[in-house]
Amino acid sequence: MEEGEGGKDLLATTLQDRLTKFASSETEEREKALPELVAFIKDGVDKEVLEKLTDKEFQPKLQDSVNRALQTKFKKHDGTEIEPWQGGHTVVVLDRDGKVKGAVSVDTEGLEEYGDLNKYALIKALCELHLYKDGREQGLSDPDNFTHLLSLGLKAGDDLFTGSVWQEDLNHEVTFVGSSGCAPKRDYLRELLAGAEPTRDTQAGLFDSVFSSLTANNLLGGHLPRKQIYSEPQEIQQLRINN
After folding, report:
1. Between the CA of residue 225 and those of 212, 215, 222, what are the distances in Å?
2. What is the pLDDT at residue 222?
3. What sign does the dihedral 6-8-11-17 (CA atoms) show?
4. Spatial CB neighbours of 173, under 8 Å, sequence gap ≥ 6
5. Helix crossing, 58-70 with 204-221: angle to 10°?
6. b/e 82-101 (16+ beta carbons within 10 angstroms → b)
7. For the chain (length 243 residues), average pLDDT per consecutive 10?
8. Which CATH number does the domain housing residue 17 bear?
9. Measured distance CA(31)–CA(22) in Å, rounded
10. Can you tell me the distance from the alpha carbon of 59 to that of 106, in angstroms, rounded to the nearest whole number?
11. N or C: which terminus of the chain carries fewer CB neighbours within 10 A?
12. CA dihedral 170, 172, 174, 179 (to 10 degrees)
C-alpha cells in the first residue's frame, strides 16, 4: 500500500468505492468478491483510513453509544453487579449501501501483535452486511452462516471472526456493527471459567458480539441513562454454567 497522507487518501477512496460496489451487487457477485475484498482490507485499512470516511454527524452518536456500552453493568443471577469491560475496544459501522458510517477505537491491552483492529471490525461488519442481503439475518452468530462464509474461501481465525450485529431503526435504516478487541476484565472472565486462567483470546468472539449488541441498542435508544444495568446476557450465563 502507498504510504503518506496522499496514499491514505487514495486508499480511503478506493476502499469506499469497493465497499459501495460490493453492497450494490447481487449475492453471487458478492460471494465471488468477498475473499479479495477481505484481503484488501487486511492489507492496509487502519484507523486513519476509516477516519477519512466516517459520517461527521453519525460519528459522535457512535462514540457516545460506545461510551455507554463501556459503562454498562451486568446484574448476575445472584443479584450482584459487575462492570465487565476492560476498556479496549474497536467498533466500525456500515450502512446498507456499504458506506462507512463510523469507527471508534481504543487499543486493547494484550492484543498488540494483531496490529490495528479496525480492519477486523470492518470485516465483521462487511460479512454481516453480506449475510443480511443474502437473507441470512441471523448473521455471523449462526454456525451455518459462519460455515457458509468459510466455503467461499475465508479462513476462520485469520479472515473470519464472530462479533457483529445488524440493527434497523424507526426509519427502517439498517446498519451493521462490527467489534473487535472488546475485552472483559480478566477477573470477570476467570470467574466465568471457574477460576481457569484465560488466554488473551478466550471467548473473544462472544464478548465482541455482546459489545456490538450493546452499542447497537444504545444507537437506537436515544437519551438513555449514562449508567445502565442489564441482566447478564444469557450466552455469558451459559459460559459460567458450562464451566
Report:
1. 18, 14, 9
2. 60
3. negative
4. 95, 96
5. 120
6. eebbbebbbbbbbbbebbbb
7. 73 98 98 98 96 97 95 92 96 98 96 94 98 96 96 94 94 96 95 89 94 94 69 92 83
8. 3.30.450.150
9. 9
10. 15
11. C
12. 10
Please state the domain count of the chain: 1
Q: What is the pTM of this model?
A: 0.94
* Cα distance from N-terminal residue to C-terminal residue, the chain: 45
**Type of residue at 197:** E
Q: How far apart are CA 177 and CA 164, in angstroms?
A: 5
Nearest to 119 by CA among 55, 182, 46: 46
CA 36/CA 162 separation, integer angstroms: 19
Say which amino acid occupies 141: S
d(CA 206, CA 139): 14
Q: Which three cell numbers stand for residue 111?
A: 492484543
